Amino acid sequence: MENKEMNEVRELEATEKVSKNFIEMIIDKDLEEGKVKSIVTRFPPEPNGYLHIGHAKSILLNYGLAKKYGGKFNLRFDDTNPTKEKTEFVDSIIEDVKWVGGDFEDRLFFASDYFDQMYEAAVKLIKKGKAFVCELTAEEIREYRGTLTEPGKNSPYRDRSIEENLKLFEEMKEGIYPDGSKVLRAKIDMASPNINMRDPVIYRVARIHHHNTGDKWCIYPMYDFAHPIEDAIEGITHSICTLEFEDHRPLYDWVVKELEYEQPPKQIEFAKLYLTNVITGKRYIKRLVEEGIVDGWDDPRLVSISALRRRGFTPEAIQMFMELCGVSKSQSSVDYAMLEYCIREDLKLKRPRIMAVLDPVKLVITNYPEDQVEYLEAPNNQENPAMGTRTVPFGRELYIEREDFMACPPKKYFRLFPGNEVRLMNAYFVKCDSYIIDENGRVTEVHCTYDPETKGGNSNDGRKVKGTIHWVAAKTALKVETRLYENIVDEAKGVYNEDGSLNLNPNSITVLKECYVEPSIAGAQAPDSFQFLRQGFFCLDMKDSTPEKPVFNRIVSLKSSYKPQ
Length: 565
Ligand code: ATP
Ligand code: MG
Description:
By secondary structure, this protein is α/β, with parallel strands linked by helices. It has 13 helices and 27 strands.
């Protein structure tokens, strides 16, 4: 290889190393040392709500690692706590995981399918003298646990014989004892500085119907015991979770060690994704939904995955966003503007750019023949010529944006005003001669003359205009509704009040009932999206849009407050 080429390869390698996140470095090391042969990761949602953008981070991180290392990625429902779970959420989660790009193929699992193995695992611990049945009340267990500064006290039931523990635990399973009367606890260390290690409860008696196992069980495992077992059963090599589980890792390791798994999974924690001034907490979203402040979990102002999809975000934009966010151990908050940047970048070259008037006022071209309709050629995407062209009907009466005309303009206003000439995008130069107002002084019509020599938007005589405005021919326009969104939170005040209530933005949604769009969108269906020239990106609403009455959501405006580094 030439020297220059070698150097390039080295440079590439160097940048590649730098761009690896800390989890990839751990995996590299585990592979190098032969601790693992191939990678298996999982996304383990509890089916107790809809997924949001934070979960998307976890999905894409786990899926991305499996893909990068040629490994496997599981979707596993962590459905061991039947009180909070609903089947409804299982379906929505499956749809959302797939949509966001977490391709789990046929690797779909339910933790509740492992209840038998978990029971056996508990029996194994008892037999090893590592677990005991305790009859302290929940309150007493709390008292005995100690505090951060004081060690705990041993339970008086801690030294029962193995035989007695086995018998009692089996009786717990048989339903002999009332709910809450007995628990199985791991026997670890009541003096551990880590409170999670002070003989944690691993099984409880609770007669709760389970969506998968019905009434088969009246004892259920606790999360900290169940999760490592689920991981081990599935052969997960790297069990990636968020930072709040860092203090639980010693217990995770204890469980997999005492159960003597040949390939014990390894827990790795990363920082949750937070968006500044954005509500992600299930509790709060639930309240907004229940109080009717938003239109369900998929209200386009929310950041649940279903809401982002309905708003018009794409999986590609969300993937790009996660790449930009990176993975780290330190907690931080990301600006929503960065997500907006990603959707703009994704749609910029992909989606047709069309003309739509959101706040219409009529423009009449007085020297244009009354019944004439002309079809003008317009590029579908100025930045992407490969998208070709289309024809746009033009006529004597058009709609233009109300703000593109001013009777008495300030300086530096280059759009329409009496005496001024502008370019109608893809069409002709028009000059404003007069305008009509109603009794309230509101402009109802703008009258112009056009110059037939300027077809296509350029003059033959070198005459220049400073303003270009968009328009839609009145006769052929499609009337649509558009919905403009702002943050549901009042950003100036911050998300939460001191009493825990939310600061809502009263202008988070603006509904415009009378907008006009060029007819080229006829036949489009949700979630098709378009750039409305000069306005932003808009997507047909999957819930409310019909062919007769199209409804568009503004995904994002064209202006950006975010600059990538
Ligand atoms: P809850 O604990 O209230 O049920 P949760 O958001 O933790 O809420 P889970 O279903 O337990 O819900 O989450 C599934 C996975 O998604 C977990 O591994 C969790 O760590 C991860 N996750 C949750 N929120 C975020 C976030 N904001 N950023 C990154 N990952 C997250
Ligand atoms: Mg959770």
